[in-house]
Amino acid sequence: MTAVTWTASKTETPARVASWRSMDCVSRGAKDEWLALFAEDAVVEDPVGPSMFDAEGKGHQGKEAIAAFWDLAIANVERFEFAVHDSFAAGSECANVGTISAFLPGGARVDTEGVFVYNVGEDGLIKSMRAFWETERALATLRVEA
Q1: What is the model's pTM?
Q2: I want to staple 46 with a disulfide (CB 3.0 to 4.6 A). Which of 12, 28, 34, 131 is the partner?
Q3: Which of 136, 138, 129, 139 is nearest to 59 (CA)?
């Protein structure tokens, strides 16, 4: 399977391009390339609100905090696959509807369904990425694959 499967609208907008690049970098484990997609004062909320990745629910603001988020939430996953089923673009933003599959050490897999909203500046850099998903729903998909 391709790491990023896109069955949504393919009309290019700056936010859609940034979102695809973000998913591509994550799927390849390209942390530095991923960080370069963000504006200096960008905010990542993944998921939005308090979570195991962000106890206060205020998001990860600035590249240093976003890099720390990578180390906490992304670096320990063996592989990610993204399936984008729909995408709605408006102005400088897009909201992608899809599933992120995380393949964990030991053969475990979790599928996270959600809405992933990207906002970009005039320079095409990501100003914010907000992921709307529910921890309990994602954890309910946890399974070990042979």
Answers
A1: 0.95
A2: 131
A3: 129
Residue-level pLDDT at 2: 65
Contact 25, 4 (CB under 8 A): no
> In sequence order, what are the beta bridge partners of 61?
43
Helix extents (H) in the chain: 14-28, 31-36, 63-69, 135-139
Tokens of 115: 């809405």
* Dist CA 146 CA 130 (whole Å): 33
Could you list the mean pLDDT of each consecutive 10-residue stretch along the chain, which spans 146 residues? 85 96 97 98 98 96 98 96 97 98 96 98 98 97 89
| Domains of the chain, first to last | 4-144 (3.10.450.50)
Which residue type occupies 65? A
The owner of tokens 């909201």 is 95
